User: Fold these one by one.
Assistant:
Number 1:
Amino acid sequence: IAGITQAPTSQILAAGRRMTLRCTQDMRHNAMYWYRQDLGLGLRLIHYSNTAGTTGKGEVPDGYSVSRANTDDFPLTLASAVPSQTSVYFCASRTSPDTGELFFGEGSRLTVL
Amino acid sequence: GQNIDQPTEMTATEGAIVQINCTYQTSGFNGLFWYQQHAGEAPTFLSYNVLDGLEEKGRFSSFLSRSKGYSYLLLKELQMKDSASYLCAVQDSNYQLIWGAGTKLIIKP
């Protein structure tokens, strides 16, 4: 069982480019989340999905979009990357929106030049 | 506003005991989580407290006082592999997790 898989592991891209970070889980979890982690700051929620077909905005949603077409996949898209989006991005999931601990993917390190 | 405070960095000796504190002010409370994160890796779950008191799990224990907005993670018999960041997170009234910046724990031989 893989748990949560994120891709790519690391990426460097030019400002203005479009980028999609992929996240897939095989635990049949209903709730999924995207966080960014920056030095000296706690994990900050970008977007979340309580169940397939629904999404919501977190603390720092600007410049990002998500979709949840099915239970397993929760991609994060940067429409036009900017240097301030340089960060480590973690996808996470849990059984339901109000129960249990979060399980995290291994992270995607993104550098925008 | 919502705020989670924990020390930025702590140093301890192998074999000793260390206590990492976390204080919080959030809109509602539905439990507090502790996670461990080794450098360059994903956070992994350590403990969850929703009622006051101490929860013990092997070498790790976690304590909660809701009236004081306070929790601590206690690590006993420290090992070199315990060198990591420890993240405190409070689940708010909307069941979203609010995260502290983490405490980097350095273990010295």
Number 2:
Amino acid sequence: RKEVEQDPGPFNVPEGATVAFNCTYSNSASQSFFWYRQDCRKEPKLLMSVYSSGNEDGRFTAQLNRASQYISLLIRDSKLSDSATYLCVVKVYTGNQFYFGTGTSLTVIP
Amino acid sequence: EAGVAQSPRYKIIEKRQSVAFWCNPISGHATLYWYQQILGQGPKLLIQFQNNGVVDDSQLPKDRFSAERLKGVDSTLKIQPAKLEDSAVYLCASSLDGASAYFGPGTRLLVL
């Protein structure tokens, strides 16, 4: 069973739309959670950490449900520049390993 | 602050040849990771170092892959002999206290 599962998409949405990505993780010992963004042919870059109480950064909102082992990312008012692959990442404290999902591809259409 | 440096950026080799990749992490980052990212997939952890010691190499194909971080700073990843299925991007990342991981630009390997 994979450590992190994501719907690969692709998601094609018009500018201004709201889109949500979901992710589940299998290891209940997972302690830290992140969303990374990866542009085509570039390296992954940290988008935001995900906190238990949920957190927001501008148009981006991340949620964590530990009971269901579920993480989400909501993007409001999508921009063309949001087009990228969004990677769900969990970290297990026992060894500080970061486990990545397969990524969800988003294309924002004019 | 300088980011994670990797070289070469691109490499094309024939199967059964050997290849080596180099990584210099962010200064002061004790933890260094090598990931393999195959097209259309997420990064897969190959090996993790804490200073010059290996923390996790459970997913490293040890019959052909090796890695070292002798002085606890920069690291090399070697493949010998390469197979077609090794074609991928090899990403190096580093972390300070495990807070989050910062990636280098990667080495894009094509095995013919």
